[in-house]
Amino acid sequence: MKSPNPTYRFGSVEFRPSNLELRVDGELRSLEPKSYRTLAFLVENSGRVVSKEEILQTVWAETAVTDNALTRIVAQIRKALEDDPREPKYIETVATVGYRFIAHVNVVDDAPVVDKVVGTDMGATSIARPDGFWILRKRVAAALLVLGVASGGAWLVAAHRKKPVLTERDTIMLADFTNSTGDAVFDGTLRQGMEVQLKQSPFLSLVPEERIQKVKGLMGQPANAQLTPAIAREICERTGSIAVVDGSIAPLGSQYVLGVRAIDCVQGKILAEDQVQAAKKEDVLKALDQAAGTLRTRLGESLTTLEKYDTPLTDATTSSLEALKSYSTGWKVQLSTGAVAAVPYFKRAIEIDPKFAVAYATLGLLYGSKGESDLAAENTSKAYELRDRTSENEKFFITAYYDGRVTGNQEKAQQTCETWARIYPREVMPHFFMTGFIYPVLDKKEKAIEEGKKAIQLGPDATVGYTLLATAYLHANRLEESETTLQRASERKLQDPDFILGRYDIAFLKGDSAGMEREAALAQNNSGAEDWVSDHEAFAMAYTGHLKEARRMSRHAAELAQQAAHGERAALFDTGPALWEALFGDGSAARKSAMAARERSKDREVEYGAAFALALSGDSSQAQTLANDLERRFPEDTSVKFSYLPAIRALIVLNHGEPAKAIELLQIAIPHELGTPRSKLQGSFGALYPVYVRGQAYLAAHQGAKAAGEFQKILDHRGAVASDPIGALAQLQLGRAYALSGDKTKAKSAYQNFLTLWKDADPDIPILKQAKAEYLKLN
Questions:
Q1: What global pTM score does this model have?
Q2: Sheet of 172-179: strands edge to edge?
Q3: Do residue 656 and residue 524 come from a single domain?
Q4: Given the DSSP bridges, would you call strands 243-252 and 172-179 parallel, antiparallel or unpaired?
Q5: Alpha-carbon distance 666 to 689, whole Å?
Q6: What is the mean pLDDT of residues 85-105?
């Protein structure tokens, strides 16, 4: 009988392959797994010259590598055996051919030489008997097998497998790395690095973090529970994914060994694995690069895409482990606690590495989602400057968000997102961008809805997808579908402050006062929604002419935002009263409020709101100054070019008694005038303002029928206007237009609609007094 676990002795060396044990003069020496396998192959073929090709085909099986890989392995073995290649005692180099093991080998306890080493379907090797290296692999998996996250140059050059393990429809689950080094800098960092590297692949798709968090909850696991191999495998099964990727890092003297593996999460079969060694701590990210590249090819990705989309991790993120750890922690905190708590970690990552492009981009996105426009633009601009220090996937993200957020050029952002979605068909972010701000600004409502549906299909547990689709439906006047979308999110047990805001707006448009009160009450217990809902409450009060209450509520919203350190958002909330006062005929108060808001922030939307209010209240000089500043600062911005500037400049020429010129200036707005400009996406005002101003210009030009057509557009697009008071005033202006065109019956009806809406309004509002006087003249 052959011994299944032979022990070999040669010279002062004792070698037990089944335990990965190598002792020289009784001292334990450490090797990489492939080094143990190579030594075993040489020992069992002692005395015979074995070619390099034979070793490579046996030890690396179906994976193609360079001769350099074998040379490095042999050098490592010689170092462990203290064997001088110039005067070898154990391994002799046979020039141009291969190697020969020249020492006399004894098998302890008369155990015969092991069976031939054979290749496995993993591209690794094992003793042919089931209890050989396979048992050993299990014993050392925690220390030596890491399924990991990074890119970039190491000793093994992987070629692609004959048969793909995964398809383009499969999803994989990424676990945390097992860290046995005792150095906390690797905790979370290696998983983050592996995620960055795997997301470079257009072929692979990871289980989204939102989905992971949801399944954790269903499993009774806390949000911050570590993704151990066992937990990750269960999540993998629950999400219908095909494989779980896990990994480890272990010390090897002063060096480090990383191992990676992909496991079929149902059958437990290893689909791919690799081990990589880092000479020092600073080389760990480079080793992670190599592991990620090997994993991608062994899971079925082509060499073509691997070569094209394989930016080294130190270039794609940072060369600093500490910065990457802070970045990784930031994302964990963001998912479990929220953006406000996460921001300091991303800031810290940038302090450690001021060239960490993706950290700047993440800050830009978080600030933008919270209404901090200037801070979002500042960080996104820095990311754009450093965009060459990212992967292709992240470069798409940065470029699209830069055009959408900083320059405001939505046409360019659209082109980038379309290319991005084509190259990365399973990436959800380009669809978020297209449904969230690109297509709404460009007045492509149906396309926005289409992209929102795709976003939910790709990320069914990402709350933002439901918010954006519900908003797209709302802007298209499809209230029932908007409500259904938010209901779908609730049925999936998803929660988000934006859902409260969405339901409040739907209730307002449906005239559901009880529903509005219910959502406002919910917002008081939700720090992420209270200030936004308070601002929308203020607009709803202004919509019905309750100006004093609207001002009070607006101040409350601004105070809440200020308390939360959202200064730009507070200034945006302050803009509302200036607009209401201007629309309602209190020019003095409007000018004062507009300048106060502008003093608080030079944010693009604040400046627009202030300029519009100033122009509407007759202060053409100040309005022109702000308009010129907007044009200078944002020459490419779609909203500025096609909505803000035409509306402001048309009001200015109206102040000078030139309605025909105002109508001419508004021609440029026509392609996008029914869309949703940034001021509406960022705040609560601005939708259809060019239409409202054109209607006023037609009134001034005594063209009643054309004026009526403009104000009717506003009434026909209530979903886009929502609680902005121009929706209420459109009824009054429609009455004026009909009166001007001689249609007394329709005029009276329109006036009655407005006066009914404002039946409890503050009685001293100038425009209300005018409306009542005008209505009396019609009778």
A1: 0.77
A2: 172-179, 243-252, 255-264, 270-278
A3: yes
A4: parallel
A5: 10
A6: 88
